[in-house]
Structures are given as structure tokens and as C-alpha cells.
Amino acid sequence: MKKWAFVSDFDGTISNKDFYWVIIEKYFPEGEELFKKWKAGQMEDIDFLSTVFSSINQDEEQIIKDILDIPIDEYVPSLIHHVQQNGGDVYILSAGTDYYIHHILQKYDIQNVTVLSNEGYYHNQNLHMNINPEHRHYSERYGIDKSKVIQELQTEYDTVHFVGDSEPDSHPAVYADLTFAKDALQDILEAKNISFNPVNDFRDVEDTLIQKGFMADV
């Protein structure tokens, strides 16, 4: 068994803004009505995202520029490096797409991180997701089942920590050894009586990991 894994959601957790909002605000105002339908339970998550991602209608160069303009938590690069220095493996677990995640990681020179997400690709001025129903992590609702991923990692590591910010993250939170919750996830987990550590940013995450002995103080 490997020592420990640190797993983080991306949109709204590492990034300060969900990529789908970037698209809706710049290129797809109709997406606001779709967002309401999605939140009302009238659309599956994967259907909402697929529709938004395929409604950009911009050259790839512009899409990449928009991706690189997405703000992230300023403490993320140093926290990831600190985890790795202390023997932890880092995973990004996202129900979005790996297409934009890899661009962000490259921008900040974040290396040796495993991205587990829906496969994304550029085609005809839009982004598309390649969803494989036969994949062991497949979810009909999200494309990727975060709970299955965390449970699988639990068979490989002594300890698995997870950080997230919204409803999809409430499911893997059940299986993580330590869950860090931002924003809406705090109320969701509290309502479900699932234990968690409330955090505002990755500096809070780092402080807790140091306090609990997983990392040496810097």
C-alpha cells in the first residue's frame, strides 16, 4: 500500500470559477436558462455540460486563451508541491473535462499530477466529451463517478484525502478519510451528517494537513 493520496475537485475548488460560466457569460447566454433547468433537476449534469461546451463556436486559440484566463486559488501550486515533498500523490478528480485542466496545469507548471476526468477534445470550434459507458468509473449522471474513484484509491493508499466545493463532491466525501469542504459543499455535508473540515482556500487545507501530521511545517 502506498502512503497517502490528496484528491481535489477542479471547477470551483482549484479554479475560482467554473469553466461553464466562462462560456455562458462570453458566448452562450442561453446557457443561463439551461443552468436553471439543470439545477431544478430537469437535466443530467453531463447533458448540461455537453451542451454548454459544444456552444462556444470559437477557434481553439481563443478557447485556450479563455481557459488560461480562469483564475485559480493562488495557494494551489505550492500546496501540491508541498504534498508531493511529503510523500503524497496528487490527483485532480473532475466531472468537467480534462481538456481545460491540462492547460491550466501547464500554465502553472504543476507536474506529476494525475487527472481523472471526462476526456475532452476540440473539434469544429467547440469542445466535446468522449464518454465511455464501459469505463469502470462511468456515471450516467456525471460521466465519471467520483465515489468509485475514491473507493478504488482506498485500495491503493493507506489514506485518501479529498477537497471539493459542490453537490457532486458530496458523494466521494462519504469515502474519503478526510474531506475538506468549500462553499456549498459545507451545508450539503452538514445536512447529510457527513464529517468534514471547512476551508476557504488551499492555505486552510495546508494548515490542517500540517496540524494532522501529514506534512511538515514549511
UniProtKB/TrEMBL annotation:
Q: Which UniProt keywords apply?
A: Hydrolase, Magnesium, Metal-binding
Q: Which family does it belong to?
A: Belongs to the HAD-like hydrolase superfamily. SerB family.
Record PANTHER family: PHOSPHOSERINE PHOSPHATASE, POLYOL PHOSPHATE PHOSPHATASE PYP1
Q: Which InterPro entries does this chain map to?
A: HAD-like_SerB, HAD-like_sf, HAD_hydro_PyrdxlP_Pase-like, HAD_sf, Pase_PHOSPHO-typ
Gene Ontology molecular function: L-phosphoserine phosphatase activity; magnesium ion binding
**Which GO BP terms sit in this record?**
L-serine biosynthetic process
Please state what class of enzyme this protein is: hydrolase
GO cellular component labels: cytoplasm
The cofactor(s) it depends on are: Mg(2+)
Q: Which SUPFAM superfamilies match?
A: HAD-like
Is-annotated flag, keyword Translocase? no
Q: Which Pfam families match?
A: Put_Phosphatase
Q: State whether keyword Nucleotidyltransferase applies.
A: no
In the Enzyme Commission scheme, what number(s) does this protein have?
Answer: 3.1.3.-
**Per its UniProt entry, which superkingdom is the organism in?**
Bacteria
Name-wise, this protein is MtnX-like HAD-IB family phosphatase
